[in-house]
Design goal:
about 325 residues, alpha+beta, Alpha-Beta Plaits, four-stranded antiparallel β-sheet, 14 strands
């Protein structure tokens, strides 16, 4: 018996952040989150289940992966094998069209593409909601990459109701300018960083409460297409997530001096009347939420300080595609 499937999934950038799990093995989050799927970073993954293989093989960007990375993929594929009673090894070939593990959300697009490809290859035929539940168990942020545009990941009350919901297709004047400050692998993975924050930061409880309030507010802003309100909420929510990390023991920060330079430039641009807002994830790169129609103006200012290769303009991106 044999089955194969191939899919593409795009990265997403959270405007209301996911930071912390209430259940580590099921990947259930402490708070709900909301993101924008973007067009410029994506993963394409092919899964082949076949009795011809002696074990699972995982190739990332053409390179056969070692034990740890392969085990994480195997464990994820086991969800599909178990559901379909499928006792076959797999070959997984994945290409990331983005810099891996530099806070540019490679696990989100990676596990969303893997889930969508395994869904076809195994013949499980999950719908998108179920697929987002599966993707979640690979990596939390992958839940949201099943859909395009603005997407909410509802934390839910159990495994069955913690999934993503599309909120708005973002087909209005919205974009992002991404400043790539460092492509190196991060020292502390987001998985380890959020665990440390949950366990040791005295600010953590306040973070969770305040993220839920920000989420309610930003959904109203998105519904009203109130760009400035949406941006202000996103910027302050990101800062609060980083504040919760600073309170961890030992303290944690993903910022670099250039990250602060970008933040100050964003505030300067705002003073000049260009509505733009920054957000950062588990890495030093800065994502600037802006009007797509003003993204080139912002880029022109940034290249007075940064190399043009460091600046990427992102449009809203689509959900998963079966290839
Ligand atoms: C987010 N991040 O909402 C947040 C903001 C980073 C900062 O989701 O442990 O790779 O696999 O569930 O999804 C990155 O964490 O973590 C992340 P796991 P994931 O986008």
């Amino acid at each position: 018996m044999k089955g194969s499937g191939k899919a593409r999934a795009h990265a997403n950038i959270a405007l209301i952040k996911y930071w912390g799990k209430r259940d580590e093995s099921l990947v259930l989050p402490m708070n709900s989150s909301l993101s924008l799927t973007i067009d410029c970073f994506y993963s394409e993954t092919e899964v082949v289940f076949s009795g011809d293989f002696d074990r699972d093989y995982f190739y990332l960007n053409g390179k056969l992966q070692e034990k740890d990375a392969t085990e994480r993929v195997s464990k994820f594929l086991d969800l599909f094998r178990k559901a379909k009673n499928l006792d076959l090894p797999a070959r997984v070939e994945s290409i990331n069209y983005l810099p891996t593990a530099a806070g540019l959300a490679s696990s989100a697009s990676g596990f969303a593409a893997l889930a969508a490809a395994a869904n076809v290859a195994s013949g499980l035929n999950l719908d998108k909601r179920e697929l987002s539940i599966y993707a979640r168990q690979g990596s939390g942020s992958a839940t949201r990459s099943i859909y395009g545009g603005f997407v909410e990941w509802r934390k839910g009350s159990s495994h069955e109701d913690s999934y993503a919901v599309p909120i708005d297709d973002a087909s209005w004047d919205v974009g992002m300018v991404i400043v790539v400050i460092n492509k190196r692998e991060k020292k502390v993975s987001s998985r380890a960083g959020m665990k440390r924050t949950v366990e040791t930061s005295p600010f953590y409880k306040v973070w969770v409460e305040s993220a839920e309030e920000d989420l309610k507010e930003i959904k109203i802003a998105i519904k009203n297409r109130d760009f400035e309100r949406m941006g202000l909420i996103a910027e302050r929510n990101g800062l609060k997530m980083h504040a919760s990390m600073l309170g961890a023991n030992p303290p944690l920060s993903y910022w670099e001096p250039e990250s602060l330079v970008v933040m100050q430039m964003v505030h300067q641009l705002r003073r000049e009347g260009i509505p733009c807002y920054f957000t950062m994830d588990a890495g030093p790169n800065v994502k600037i939420l802006c009007r797509l129609s003003e993204s080139h103006k912002i880029r022109d200012r940034l290249i007075e300080v940064f190399d043009p290769n460091q600046i990427i303009i992102a449009k809203p991106g689509p959900g998963i595609t079966i290839l």
